[in-house]
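User: Can you help me understand a structure? I only have the sequence.
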Amino acid sequence: MNYIGSKLKLSSWILKEVKRVVGSDLSQKVFCDMFAGTGIVGRVFKKEVKRVISNDLEYYSYVLNKNYIENHKAIDEKEKYIEELNNLPVIEDGFIYQNYCLGSGSGRQYFSDANGKKIDAIRTKIQEWKENNKINSNLYYFLLASLLESADKVANTASVYGAFLKHMKKSALKELILEPAYFVENENAHQVFNRDSNELIKEISGDILYLDPPYNQREYGANYHLLNTIAKYDNFIPKGKTGLREYNRSSYCKKAKVHSSFEELIKHADFQYIFLSYNNEGLMSKDDVATIMKKYGEYSLVTKEYQRYKADKTESRKHQADKTYEYLHILKKSS
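Assistant: Let's start by predicting it. Here is the structure, written out as tokens:
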């Protein structure tokens, strides 16, 4: 999934730096991915550590991580369910088609009419199976994560859902095929939360805390609102041209609140090692972060140049050419 701030290209570098600081054997460590997003970093560490604690304020992220992180044992016949969902008759009056497809008269075209109807059919059937106890929680989140990722592949957007495109792009005209969201199987149990990070931090503990908060004013709840709608499949009145739902607003997206929120998080963290991913375009400067972290222990910094993810294709060529630096701030917290 194309995702703002994705660490897919940086995950191996992050793992290498964590091992350099903490030690090469992480097998007895508890690792927390506090702003998990699509769970890329948590998935990498799932194979390395005793337990992953994954958290994100957004519900679509919770669904993805309930599958990719918390699911760790084989699920029997999961492909059979995928096949059945792919062959359902479409639904004409479902919520996605009625509110986010042009043929319904909504004025919005986030999906083709056919794909909107198929999303509704699949989502309705998954919910029916869950309520009738035909599927357990593990299978439910596997199927729901599969739907989110498959729907995202045929969305008529420039990668985020802040707006739809005026004309249907080629990939959006393809038929939605539900593809399985396979997860890593292992012996260890993991935990996934859907909480405010600054509240959850007071209730958990571990060895390694990885932080990847929003860098700027872009609210993930607004940029990915339609994924939340598919995941929750609740009734509400979509607002405005883009069909926005009520969404979470993070203090990490607010210049006036980010510094105090970040320091509160560090202060309450019951973890020996803290790693913060942040880049040179963030609301907090490199020096701001260093000043806060140095209060709580032994601080260091490593930097990596990389090509940033551009959700907005209209950005100027000059700005697109700018180099982006990922900062990995490291704190060995004082006991």
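Now, to help you interpret it: The chain has two domains: 1-72+189-214+252-335, 73-141+153-182+223-249. The chain has a mean pLDDT of 94. Let me know which part you'd like to focus on.
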